């Protein structure tokens, strides 16, 4: 027999499902942002060498979670860009829900979900488990790596330096930064995007407010808009990406 859970109930049962895993845990959620207690439970399971699999959507992983997962060597992660389902399942229980594994959703959204116990409804549990396995199969397993973050203090420091050193006003394209520091343009663009200094819209690179504060400047070129940067960001990226 399946059990209906409201928002409060699902948060409690989800934590219990993770904590009580004996063998295998599958977490399927487009968005990830772990509550501290969830991290503690996952870390404990990882130490015990339980089989932990997490599937999420590409570019929907918070930097803090990415850095935390990078040191959890036993936790296997996969991405599936078409993922919209949210399902959390171990060897004895499954939760199918509207809620992402995301702190904001747990604390602010009105959610509904169904809890299915294998002992009470093995046929329904097996259907959910088989679909979870299918999602694992079609997803692409990846190794999460640490993402280096530009902090506000770095921006303030670079901005102050640019004012006190009287920069010559030259600004650098991504290609020129790449040649200057010996890092690929794709990696530089990815870093600037992840740190919310600019974002891609169609074929254009658009500055964010944070990027403008850093001294970025938009230009129109043959292939659309692009961003050029002051010398200070070249120095900063050289330290962060090498």
Structure description:
The protein is of the alpha+beta class and 242 residues long. The chain contains ten helices and 15 strands. The protein has helices at residues 7-19, 36-47, 63-70, 103-108, 122-138, 152-164, 174-181, 185-194, 209-213, 231-241; strands at residues 3-5, 24-28, 32-33, 51-56, 76-79, 86-89, 93-97, 101-102, 113-117, 140-142, 171-172, 198-201, 204-207, 217-221, 224-230. It has an eight-stranded mixed sheet, with helices on both faces. A three-stranded antiparallel sheet has the order 11-15-14. Helix 6 packs across helix 10 (231-241). The longest helix is centred in the middle third of the chain and has 17 residues, at 122-138. The radius of gyration is 22 Å and the shape is elongated.
Features:
43% helix, 242 residues, 3-stranded antiparallel sheet, 25% strand, single chain, alpha+beta, elongated, 8-stranded mixed sheet
Could you give a short description of this structure?
This protein has 242 residues and is an alpha+beta fold. Helices cover 43% and strands 25% of the residues. The protein contains ten helices and 15 strands.
